[in-house]
Amino acid sequence: MILIADSGSTKTSWFFFKDFNHSEKISTNGINPFFRTTESIVAELQKDLIPKTGTSISEIYFYGAGIIDSKKAKTVKDALQQLFTTAKIEVESDLLAAARATFQNEKGIACILGTGANTCLYNGKQITGHVPPLGFILGDEGSGAVLGRKLVADYLKGILPNDLSQKFSNQFQLNYAGFLESVYKKERPNKFLAQFTPFLYNNINDDYCANLVTNSFRDFIERNIKLYSGYQDETIRFVGSVAYYFQPQLKEAMQLTELNYGGVLKEPLDGLKKFHLQ
């Protein structure tokens, strides 16, 4: 029995394979070792995952946001090893998941646009180039957290057009102090900010919303994709909910910069299933 996991900061999607013909998809909260401890991961999965999978798993392939080095990988691997004591466990970055899911054994530039953002140059086997995303404060251009950050900032500064400002106020019952506390004092501020992205999607026909999203994608391209040598000749593919739901704006940004747009996967799991079971 095999488990494949794709984990972002917001949620973790698991494919549980009882055999090659029977699989089940399971969702749990995000497991990002920047924000989680081994103990909290064990407690959560004991409650939300084990009742559905049991512990007799032979192989686990875990791909996650925040897996940037061996120390962060160990936080997750130790938790999984406590729960699945006999399993073979591999813990890799969500970036390698995006590359394997979108390109399989081909080369190209793989991109993530979800709650966070990331990119890599992939040679069909391994990541050969990487521009650091830097998180939603210093980078993560085009991500859900940054789109939400820009929207909330414009609302609080009175920049948001009046009709949208009224809609926003009616939908989200937070005052000025509440916004600041959620961003600067509470846990997972990136998740908090990303929750406002659907507001942009639901009002995307408004010029303000469309321009905010398209310009954010152009920032993503300028500050990430264009930093790879030879980017003009590479196919560029995306995974993530933000890329998926804002495809028209993403395509527009790619066309404006004359890049080779190769399509979007909402989630990498289908591609990872093919990669690991082929």
> Within the largest sheet, what's the order of strands?
3-2-1-4-5
How much helical structure, as a percent, in the residues?
A: 40-55%
* Largest sheet properties: 5 strands, mixed
CATH topology of the domain at 2-96 and 270-277: Nucleotidyltransferase, domain 5
How would you describe this protein?
With 278 residues, the chain is of the alpha/beta class. The chain has helices at residues 38-48, 50-53, 70-83, 94-103, 135-138, 144-157, 162-171, 176-184, 189-194, 197-202, 207-223, 241-245, 247-256, 269-277, and strands at 2-7, 11-19, 22-29, 59-64, 88-93, 108-113, 117-122, 127-129, 235-239, 260-265. The protein has a domain at 2-96 and 270-277: Nucleotidyltransferase, domain 5. Helix content is 46%, strand content 22%. The protein has a five-stranded mixed sheet with strand order 3-2-1-4-5, with helices on both faces. A five-stranded mixed sheet has the order 8-7-6-9-10, sandwiched between helices. The longest helix is centred in the last third of the chain and has 17 residues, at 207-223. The protein is globular and about 60 Å long.
